Structures are given as structure tokens and as C-alpha cells.
Amino acid sequence: MLKKALFAATALFALAGVSHAADLKEFRVGILGGENEADRLRNYACLADHLKTEFGFEKVSLFPAADYDGVIQGLLGGTLDFAELGASGYAAIAIKDEKAVTPILTTVQKDGSTGYHSIGLALKSSGIKDIKDAKGKKLGYADPDSTSGYLIPLTQIPKDTGMPNDKYFASTQFNGGHENNLLAAYDGKVDIAVDDSSGIGDFKDGYTSGTFRKAVDKGTVDPNKLVEVWRSPLIPNGPLVVRNELGADWQAKLTDFFTKLPKMDAKCFAAIEGGDYQGYTKVQPDFYNAIIDARKAAIGG
């Protein structure tokens, strides 16, 4: 009798979860830190409108977290339904709970690749032309959960310098996201900033996408005053992820919606992605295995 009662209670709980997902009235979108909050909310407003129209949500809530970890914890704790993450941010979730979210799509660059780069930028006036000129200088990181703004420079720059970053540079520091990190280099607070970039297109445009491109488009930096002094190997583009508790049906619906978005509203697509991309393509969790392994080895969970 007790077993039957427990089974019935479990079944009711499961059904309640299915019903909640099926009758979703509010959709909660996490937005990574890295750009100022007002710009992030403005860029994502069109997406909220499209989601309401497409799915009839009563409310689409946008949560621009102060840092990457805010979105990571929101997805792990079930207070967010969807987000676009960097590869290292997804790795952080997968290491803690591989069943928390499912990656559904990733971006495709204009050259057809599904990867991007971490680039090191410095002021031309600094005289730094290459990472090997930067010994004893200050290095700026973006965020501890950033792929291009921390994990990859942490593990890849030493391959070019022959020394760990904390030994090679006079100091390293986090600057509160990608935009702040780039501005720290531009304002001379650090000598080099590492940030995300497609690495394709014209440097004078800030390349085709990434933090540098956004800053050039907004007029907050003059590319003629900057120089690229380091570039990483190709990094897997980060995924759009859906909280698994929503179920396979919502994952399929959202996959279809976002796949169509670039053609449905190219301006909105460019706004949320911050640059010039071809579109989205489906992605599987194993696409990020190398980043998960790198994160485990370098910084743990």
C-alpha cells in the first residue's frame, strides 16, 4: 500500500511538471554579463516580443546577470528557462549537472565556421606588437566563466610565452565582463585585454562579430588606436541552451523558432548576437567535450 501511495505521488509530481512545461505562461531568458545592462536589455527587447507573439507567453522576462555565474546558477537552480552561453559557461553547468540543460543550437560565422577566437588587444601607443613583447605587463581578463575572456587565454597564452600567465605578466585581473575588459585596455588600466572575436573581416570594423565589433559599432573605441597582439586557436561557438525540465517538445519548438529567426528578423538576430553571422545550426553536447575537459583541468567546476 505504501509503495502504491509513493508511486502515485511521484506520478502526480511528474504530471504536474509536464503540465507546467506545456502551459508555460512566463518564459525566463538569462543574458550573460559582459556588456552594460541597458544595451543588453535593448538588444533583447525584440526577441522578447517575438517569443510572445510566437508562443503566446503572457510574459517574457529578461534577466541581464551582473556576471556569467548569475546565468549559470539560474539555469542550474531552475529560475531561468533559456540562455545563450559561452562554451566554458556551458561546461560549468555540464560539470555540475549534465542533465540541467540541453544545447540546441550554435551560431555560424560568415565564413561558415562554428568557432571564434580569443584575441589580445593593446593600444598602439603601448608599443606592444606581439604577446612576446608583453612580458612584465598587465593582462586583463573578462570573467572567470568566460571562454575567450579567461579559460582559453589561461591555457593557451603559456604555449606561446613558455610561462604560466601569473609568472609571465606583472599582474592579471578580472575587469567585470568583456566590454569593461576591452575598455580597461583602451583606457590604459591594463596593457592587454583578451576578448571574443570572429577574427574574420576587417580589423577597422572590429571584425565581423564579438565584443570588439560591438564597441566599434557603438563608437566607444577607435580601432585605429588598437592592435591585435595575440590570437587563440579556434574555439567552439557557445550554445543556446534550454532547461531540460521544459521537456523535448519545448526544445524542438525553440530550436525551430531560433533557426527561423535570422531570416524572419535579421536586425533582431544581429542585435542579440552582436555582429554579422550566417545563422544558427544544431549542436550536440559532445561538441563541447574539449572545453569541458579543459575547464576541469584548468579551473575545476
Please provide a written account of the structure.
The chain is of the alpha/beta class and 301 residues long. 44% of the residues lie in helices and 22% in strands. The protein has 2 domains: 26-110 and 238-299, Periplasmic binding protein-like II (D-Maltodextrin-Binding Protein, domain 2), CATH 3.40.190.10; 115-235, D-Maltodextrin-Binding Protein, domain 2, CATH 3.40.190.10. The protein has helices spanning 2-22, 37-55, 68-77, 87-96, 147-161, 165-168, 178-186, 211-218, 248-264, 266-273, 289-299; strands at 26-31, 59-64, 82-84, 101-109, 115-123, 138-141, 171-174, 192-197, 226-231, 235-236, 239-243, 277-282. The strands form 2 sheets. A 6-stranded mixed β-sheet has the order 2-1-3-11-4-12, sandwiched between helices. α2 links the parallel β1 (26-31) and β2 (59-64).
